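If you are new to this repository, start here. Below is one unmodified record pulled from the training split, so you can see the exact layout before writing a loader.
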Amino acid sequence: MDVGGTETKAALISGAGDAGPGRPPTTLAQRRRPTRPTGDAVVEDVAALVADLRAACPHPVDAVGLVVPGIVDEPTGTGVYSANLGWRDYPFTKNLEAATGARVAFGHDVRAGGLAELRLGNARDLRNAVIMPIGTGIAAALVVDHRVIDAPGEIGHVDVGHPDPCGCGQTGCVEARAGSAAIARRYGERANTRVSGAAEVAARLRAGDPDAAITWHEAVDALAKGILLVAALLGPEAVVLGGGLALAGPLLTDPLTRRLDELVTFQRRPELRLAALGDEAGCLGAALLAINMLEET
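And here is the target side for that same chain:
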């Protein structure tokens, strides 16, 4: 179960914990539904998805992997804070286990997606990397010595110097300009029209829309400055870009590469890669957390 800022993705997954000679994780069925704010609503919706997928499975489901955004306390199963979905200190593991009767492995959505990309995707050959999905929010899984470390990775809430307010209460955040929802909102305000999302802004950019070009340029600039900070602090070999915005491909990576080249002075300029697992990464990562939990007990 991968709870996102706008959508919750669910998958029934069978397999072992690593790709290779064994039995790599295989997705047997998938479900999606809009994410409702508050922890209680999320547990209610996730429990319904669990029941739906259990009915689709001829065998007992061994465990549930649940990953959520924001600040989390994995050992206690607590959602500490989510600016976008409005919870504080919510006991996800306790409440979901009560609602489903299943064991629950709980984690952070971005770190779980990073774990999947590290074990199964486009970061398998990297020792030190940053795996950064760009969706409604922006955060990062930090890979150090081929391991996803337990760190917040809230790159989306780094102040990169612009005046726009962010939902977290700060101004100047990367997410307030480069998040997919922010791109759609800011384009809509500039062009005085409504768009369905960042993908539509990208399509208008390809068609030569000057308002889309300005909005996209400002998003790339904010993202580049966030990556520059990571490069200065961690010196990763690569930044692996995922999430919906990464589906723009070279439309994102080409100007982002150019802007990084302009900004870098002494920092090691990381290679930019596109994630391999798409929007399945969160569910696969949640499954890996559940598999790890079962293998350790």
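Two things worth knowing about this chain: The chain has nine helices and 13 strands. The chain has a mean pLDDT of 92.
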